[in-house]
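Replying to the earlier thread about multi-chain prediction with a worked example.

Input:
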Amino acid sequence: MEINIGLADVMRISPMIAIFIASLLPITTKVLSGNKEPNNLVTLIQGIAGLIVGLVLLTVVGGSGELAFSKSLVFDSITLWMGALAILSAMGAIIIMYENFATNGKQFAELVFLALNSVVGMLILVSAMDLLTLFVGLELMSLTLYLMIAMSHEEKLSKEAAFKYFLLGSFASAIFLYGTAFVFGTTGSTNLITFMQEASSLVQSNRLFLFGISFVILGFCFKVSIAPFHAWTPDVYQGAPTPHTAFMATAVKVVSFAAFLRVIATKSLVGSEGLFDVLQWLAVITMIVGNVGAIVQTNLKRVLAYSSISNSGYVLVGVITAGISDTGFFGASAVIFYLFSYCLMTLGAFAIVSILEKNENHMISLDGLKGLASRRPVYAFCFALFLLSLAGIPPSIGFFGKFYLFNAAVGEGLIWLAVWGVINSVISVYYYLKPIVYMYMTEGESEIAGHNLSATTVTMIVSAVFIALLGMLSGPIFSAVEKSFIN
Amino acid sequence: MLLSTVIFLPLFFALVMTFWPQQRTLRHLALGFSLVEFLISLMILSEFDIGSARLQLVEKITWIERFGIQYFVGIDGISLWLVLLTTFITPIIILASWQSIDTKVKGFHACLFLLQTAMIGTFLAMDAILFYVFWELSLIPMYFMVGIWGGARRIYATIKFFIFTMAGSVLMLVAIIYMMYLTQQATGVMSASLLEFYKVQIPFVAGTLMSQQTLLFFAFALAFAIKVPIWPVHTWLPDAHVEAPTPGSVILAGVMLKMGTYCFLRWVIPLFPDATEYWSWLFLSLGVIGIVYGALVAMIQPDIKKLVAYSSVSHMGYIILGLFVLNQYGITGGIYQMLNHGVSTGALFLLIGMIYERTHSREISKYGGLAGVLPIFTIFFFIITLSSIAVPLTNGFIGEYLILMGTFKAAPVYAYIAVTGVVLGAAYMLWMFKRVFFGEKGELVKDEHHPLHDLNLREIVVMVPLVILVFWMGIFPNHFLNWTKSSVDHLVNNKSKYYLEIHETKVAKGIEYGN
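Result:
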């Protein structure tokens, strides 16, 4: 195999390089100044600046559909949109880290270093066209994340969460690699472009190939917490510091779905009806498990964790739609738009949780929201908006996200999935309304944390404004996403 | 731009209310705003072409081009009076809640105006997605209204209300999406416009549930049936009514329930004519059951508000009966009864709210002999009671008479049973009236430490417009029915293949009118 790397290849990965260099700035400063913690605000600005540069470079190089590094990386629409979304979510998460008790203060420089490297892993993951490159991205993203969670100033739960996530994540990675080995064994290649050409016939004739590709998919299912591989999610989301939970629930989920979509939407697994039947059932089960599970939770972060599981179920509907349609653009665009709306809502909701946390060991229960509306009307209003949008009430962006997703599903004849989806959004209304009941309809002593929270508040308000307005203006955005596929 | 103004002006008012710095002038401001809105909505009458069945004052702007979704509003004889009812009842509600709402006044009025936007939008939207947005949006302010200002079990009631309504409407969303694809198949262009939907011939197979038209029919009908509510999905209504604050109950009974019946007329009957015809027996039966069941259950209620809530179930049964007999009398009666119910039941809830403010109890057994103590209140209550039991010269009579006449013509069996509802209705209302107003003075009435005061000027001002309307609608029904006649004729004559055209000369000025 001839390996030929030119300057063009390096130019295309410039976003990754830029973010990596930016990630080195804070820890280099720290080491050079005798291991004295640099000013957190400077660290934050360095991190954000690195991400912005990465985002700008990504918009320049992404979306062209060109390949790099002998077909192992691709810069198409999925790379562009999902990568941008991951960078933006990471930006929001880092801002929340700056003001959260469990993450600010000492070791913030290391934290930003890890977070930015996680983003580099994400960008590799969204652009990977080769199962092994994909694996490298996945691991880079996950390993830094395990460390980030374990670094929390909170003593007990975060360590448990990190360890649990690490063990189960390693298992999933092993299964993913195992599947990759079978794919390589049957097709002689790990490159998606190469082996997917034969996949449509292989998936029917060759059991080993089907076995391998199923394991690869199973690895993704773990990462995006599709039931029954979701069990780690509530514990990890609860134990991890809130900003990291926000990071996992948004950026990590987006890029994992991007890679999932890339494997599924190459349109060569179509021959395998059994595979898609199973995926459809998984989507339905995930929605139900997530929504029913959330009803009985009393810890706010666990509620949001289960909500995130159920949202994975909705997105999986879109991924399946993209997988079975002839063109796949509509389904993929619906997935991208849905993830966009989901990131806004989830980031906003976790920002609120972070705002309410009064010290690093503080767990927010639903009771802890009592009477927030009379004391902090703006925060309560924004949180209510996020929850109603998550429940899919128009005219918020959450409704339009679901509308496009189910529209794509109905268009491909998957009406029953759409019906399950909407039934589940009714179930979800119950637990999304509960915090609103506590905030607005009961008296209590709830109060936000006492220190300066301006950056997190800004993040929250920006999300709220987008949620309120971008729903109604979603038409052009959606068309832009879809058109970028055709070009 | 008239219709858009009517729809979005309350939204603007809601925003102004939210940021209004003063507490003291909030109510005056809200009252002024709602009167302005009412006056503007009256301008629709002057613009409206009474002789045309077409869609008038149309505004049409592309919203989401990819799916053919438009901002498309228009008015015809079916929606005309419901819009005016909404704008008419809001100032009354604000005036009636002058003293009863004393916490979070700002939020309350903001909710009220937001609700007004959502309800008017639901009546005027001619695009399925736009309609759905307004339809669902109306849940949120009502949810807060019951949940924040309601009674003891308000949280249970409001969540039940929200989930019931939402459960019905999500299947409608899937049905709407499916209709959009059917429209694309039929015309080649995807569209969410109701007028395009009307043109689609949806395959119908009698005798099976699994035909396209039947499934779509039930997906839509379920959403509206829960909203109406039709027996047996009515159980959220008594809870919501009892727990809601007076203004909430009035708006719920006065306007929100009509969203359900109106949508049957606007969406279900014209879109799915075959399924409607085939399944009309089901809805006629449920309507009749609702009439009798509601009346019987109302009779034994110890709580006045709950009694009126169940009487609503009974009255809404009449409207369903009227709509599904599918003839001129029935549908005209149905539309008229929607207005009647809004006026009379709204007025009943207002009166109950007034007495509740004085005694803080709604138990019938604690009252008695009220007539001697509160004469003005008694007179108002008596007039509204007569209207509610459909005595001639009051509005209720016209509506029920037309509905029953239509039913006798089309399906006499149902009429025989429905007529018993008239008798039962008189029975429970008059019995309640007797127990509350006559006889020995009850414990609340003779309590000498808290003497009861008769209605003050504000409360009389609240009631007078409603009483005028009761007699006006009862004595001169044609003043109202003339406006709806063309649309109803058009619907009945074309019920198997309904279509709706846009009134070219009555397209809103300044709006470019395409395709």
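Residues 352 and 493 of chain B are 42 Å apart (CA to CA).

Feel free to reuse this layout for your own posts.
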